Amino acid sequence: MSDQVILNAEDRKEDGKSSNRLLRRNGSIPAVIYGGSKDPIRVSILEKDITKAALVPGFSTQILSVSVSGNNEDVIIKEIQRHPASERVLHADLMRVNPDTKISISVPVRFINEENCIGVKMHGGAISRLINNIDINCLASNLPEYIEVDVENMDIGDSVFLSALSLPEGVEIPSLALGDDRDQAVVSVAEPKSMEVETEIEEVIGEEGAEGEEGDQDNEESSDEKGSDSD
Question: Considering the entire predicted model, what is its pTM?
C-alpha cells in the first residue's frame, strides 16, 4: 500500500465558470468535497499538487487526506475532469469516507508474470487483456489499489473470468450478483496472429498455382486447336 497522499485545499466562496477560469489562471483547480453527514464544500487545490499526487501509484483508489482550514477530510476520488487535449486537471469531485463506509469504486487490474506465461513462452501465444478496470464494492478500510491477475499458468485457449479472481478480503464484484451472463473474461491467451497470416499466404499461393495450371491448360488447348486448323 502506498503512503497516504495529503493535499492542502482552501475554501472558495464563489462558483461559476468565470471564477473557475480565474482559479485555473492562478494555478489552482476547483474541487468539491461531499458525502457523509456534512454539507458539501467547495474548495480549490493547487494544480501542481494534484498533478504530482496523481503520479503516485494507486492515487485514484486510495483514501486521500485533504486539509481544509486546519481540518482534515478523508476522501476518495470520485471523478477528475481533464482537458481533452492537454490532459490538464480541470476539476475534482472528492467523496468523504471513513473506515466503515461502504463504497463503490472502479479499480485497475494488474497482470503479473506475463513474461513467464506458458502459452506465450512455450507455444508462442499472445496475451489479450480484455478488462483493465473492475467495479467493486467494499469498506473503505478494505479498499485495494488494484486487483491482481497471475497469468503464469495460462496456456493457449485459456481465459480467466471475473468469478475466478482472487479478491482481497471484504471485496465484492457487484455485477456477478446480477447473473451468470455478467461473468466476463478478464484476460485470455490466443494463438499468435503470425500463424493465421502464414495460412492466408499459403491459401493465396495455392490459388495462384491453380490459376496458373488452368492457364497452361488453356494455352495447350489453344495450341492444339491452331494445329488442327493448319492441318
Answer: 0.70
